UniProtKB/TrEMBL annotation:
GO terms for molecular function: ferredoxin-NADP+ reductase activity; flavin adenine dinucleotide binding; NADP binding. This is Ferredoxin--NADP reductase. Binds 1 FAD per subunit. It is an enzyme of class 1 (oxidoreductase). Homodimer. It comes from Sinomicrobium pectinilyticum. Gene3D superfamilies: FAD/NAD(P)-binding domain. HAMAP family: FENR2. Transmembrane segments: none annotated. Belongs to the ferredoxin--NADP reductase type 2 family. Its EC number is 1.18.1.2. Keywords: FAD, Flavoprotein, NADP, Oxidoreductase. It comes from the Bacteria. Signal peptide: none annotated.
Amino acid sequence: MIKTDILIIGAGPTGLFTVFEAGLLKLKTHLIDALPQPGGQCSELYPKKPIYDIPGFPEIKAGDLVDNLMEQIKPFSPGFTLGERAETIEKLEDGSFIVTTNKGTQHHAPVIAIAGGLGSFEPKKPLIDNIADYEDNGVAYMIKDPEVYRDKKVVIAGGGDSALDWSIFLADVASEVTLVHRRNEFRGALDSVEKVGELAKLGKINLVTRAEVVGLLGEGHLNSVVINHADEGEFIRETDYFIPLFGLSPKLGPIADWGLEIEKNAIKVDNSYDYSTNIPGIYAIGDVNTYKGKLKLILSGFHEAAIMCQSAYQRIFPDKRYVMKYTTVGGIQGFDGTKK
Ligand code: FAD
């Protein structure tokens, strides 16, 4: 059981900055994110796009903003549970919560900050009848640790950047990489398309275009896929892993069933005070919340995180009085008490 003061669901920009604001108040934080990396939409949807409306940065790429946030929160050593979706919540008699992920990891905290943005990004799955039987047994929809595929046979499906980039990367890790795509043309960056073509010529990637994976075979663990080619028909290819990379779509998902007041797929909060929800102890900040005049911008999430942490502090320590100080006056102190 992972214990913390504020359990943050969502490691997008809002969730990451919450660590900083909580850290200033000496509150411990732990983040859960369904994606294998932090940064939310900035990392997943537009890492290379410049952003022009972050105060103090005339221009910054979304990926660099995430790197900076990670650097800024380092002194507070937050915990991370990545690649797992917060699934269920249980309120204990003392008012604290236990949140369990889809992989069964349990987290205990007196305060929950939902910074879930547009929701958890769910993989778009191919329509293969028995695919659910092989999930975690040879089928993966995102790559968390590429070392899992060292010296293994891998079949990747898809025509976008993820499918191309991972095929290139795994060509040096896996014993065999097959990339299957429905068309001859790829949607990804030209540079990556060319690289895949070069690796295919060198025999380091088996490129199968105008084809689809239509079946999965194997007792318990996957051992081969059935590929249907537009001209040649069906054939079987032996593989240890099948990784369909068809993109991710956001869904509010299980949080919608936690008894929170929901309006237009977002969580209603009290913006006259502290971004609390209808359940005492649960706050919602960033893109995931809604109130009159809400702006779905990164800076709104930062502001909401600062206010929410002050309220969380009072909830956790009702008898202590916190006097707000500027960071330049108080300095930033890590949990070990040393000034950074
Ligand atoms: P998100 O970034 O959405 O992060 C939420 C995280 O929560 C995700 O990683 C998700 O996986 C996770 N999550 C959700 N539910 C669960 C669950 N149940 N369990 C585990 N994890 C969960 N904003 C600007 O201010 N300036 C811009 O220039 C700008 N440009 C944009 C361009 C594009 C193309 C897009 C799509 C958005 C842009 N935005 C911009 C909006 C900005 O990205 C969002 O306002 C911001 O990402 C919100 O941050 P967040 O942390 O609240 O949510």
